[in-house]
Specification:
Elements: H1 6-28, H2 32-39, H3 43-59, H4 67-87, H5 90-106, H6 117-188, H7 193-221, H8 238-247, E1 252-256, H9 259-264, H10 267-287, E2 293-300, E3 304-311, H11 330-340, E4 344-350, E5 354-362
Parallel strand pairs: 1-2
Antiparallel strand pairs: 2-3, 3-5, 4-5
Length: 370
Amino acid sequence: MWESTGPAVLALGALPTFAATGTVVWAVARPRAAIRQRLGRLARPTAVCAALSLVTSFALPEPGHGSGWKLAETAVLLLLLAVVTRWSPPRELTAALPPAVLAVALWPLPLAGGGSFLESVGIAAFWLLPAAAAVAAGAHLRRQDLRRRSAVAEARSAQRLQLSRDLHDFVAHDISGIVVQAQAARFVAATDPSQAVLALERIEKAGLSALAAMDRTVQMLHGPEAPGTEPLPGLSQLPVLLEDFGAAGTTEAQLDLPPLVTEVLSREAGSAAYRIVVEALTNIRRHAPDASRATVTFTPTATSVEIRVTNDRGARPAPARRRVSRGGLGLPALTEHAQALGGTLSAGPHGEGGWQLTAVLPATSPKETP
């Protein structure tokens, strides 16, 4: 009976091959944008093809028929194994892998005839090797993609954090000065218009400074080689910073910056020192606007530079509506930055109701003069 239906047997033997090949063609014969989505939906078709392969391997009456198709079918199943391991969701992957691996490992057993159990185990173990290699290749590509996605996510998070720090450290400082000047101008406008004009000039200067900080931050998002990108402020801008701070309110600001400091602090440490002073002055303006004096002192030592910012009147309690700074902003972020550079930062009460911020940054060897 089966001799007269030889073509039918061959057709049944070739059915899994055509099914597996059709699955691959269905996945890739689409616009490029849709290929990745279809590759992620191959788990169920792969499981169906594997089931057909197992059925035809053990149900056909003459195992020798269609062995050529079986080799081609195994090659396509190995390709599907790699693709499914790379692209399929974990839940669907766990359902597709076992039948596909079994189909690859067990297809030669009917051809072995009445071999012993050990021979059958050896054959199955041998064909497990290409199946394991296909799964390993797909898993490797999947792991590489996960690492790449994780690296991109970390880079974006670091960029957003740097953006928030720049906006907090620089823009918030300038806006605080604008608020102070606007309040002063409102009170003196009626009695001394000339002072109001000066206050408006300082408001304009602070506004331009805030816009420059925002432009620098936006340019940073375009990459380090963006045209027109300016370096972050450093120690050389501290005198102007203290002058503007003193002019913006009633607090007298003093700066003690020995020339040696600029030689022993790296550019990154100098930028961090500028940020620390900006944050300290901003906190004085917000929480101790009635302080009569603020002092910024740099003290170089053999291995470090100590920065002290003090005011002679304690910080007033923050308003209830003020949001407490969280990770990435203010003193916590500056403390992490200082520690990353190998230094320290702390703040607390000082003297009779005053406040003091102390930071220590590591120093590099000063340049030797010829």
